[in-house]
Design brief:
Blueprint: E1 8-12, E2 17-21, E3 25-27, E4 38-43, E5 49-56, H1 63-77, E6 86-93, E7 106-116, E8 125-136, E9 141-152, H2 172-181, E10 183-184
Antiparallel strand pairs: 1-2, 2-10, 3-4, 4-5, 5-9, 6-7, 7-8, 8-9
């Protein structure tokens, strides 16, 4: 089902990259400070978020394991590393013929779940994490695009007020469009 809103090409990192970001996206950098290596968007009515992140290329990790490596790293940042708190359900290669970012050596999409708390709260929320990975060894960079899609929100979580207001949530298809439309305009971004 198509959403009624309109997705638009969004410049990223000062226009060095761009992608079609789903409608109803709030640019979080307008609300709080975001690290220079990240672009963060939140859905206006749900607790969903999209993060585009430039990270150091992990040359010691083979391509087919790299998405899982970064997923585990995110789980560590989310303090979701205890047994049962995170799980990978699929990792698939993305055909370069379907991608705008043709300079990547390979691209992957991982789907998994993490039990995370926001703002160091005790309450844990179950979040489906869709992670897109573009490997750019020539720029010593891995580009990560993470779509956080909460599945169950603890009543004690600060996100509980957003639960149940899922008006036109973003879909996996919206996320796949972000991956397919990610475009490099200025390689100088990578230094």
């Amino acid at each position: 089902m198509q959403s009624a809103g309109v997705s638009a090409v969004q410049p990223l990192f000062g226009g060095a990259l761009s992608a079609v970001i789903p409608d109803r996206a709030t640019d979080i950098s307008e609300l709080r400070e975001i690290p220079d290596n990240q672009e963060v968007f939140a859905h206006a009515h749900t607790d969903q978020s999209l993060i585009v992140e430039l990270v150091e290329y992990q040359g010691q990790v083979v391509d087919q394991d790299a998405a899982r490596y970064h997923f585990d790293d995110i789980a560590g940042s989310n303090k979701a590393l205890e047994p049962g708190a995170f799980e990978v359900t699929s990792v698939v290669a993305l055909p370069k013929s379907e991608l705008s970012l043709s300079v990547c050596s390979s691209a992957w999409m991982l789907t998994g779940t993490q039990c995370v708390s926001k703002f160091n709260e005790e309450a844990r929320n179950t979040v489906t994490v869709h992670l897109g990975l573009f490997r750019l060894p020539q720029f010593s960079t891995d580009v990560l695009i993470t779509f956080n899609d909460p599945q169950s929100i603890s009543p004690e979580s600060s996100s509980a007020s957003a639960a149940g207001t899922h008006r036109e949530p973003w879909t996996v298809q919206d996320f796949q469009r972000v991956l397919q439309t990610l475009t490099l305009h200025n390689p100088g971004l990578f230094g």
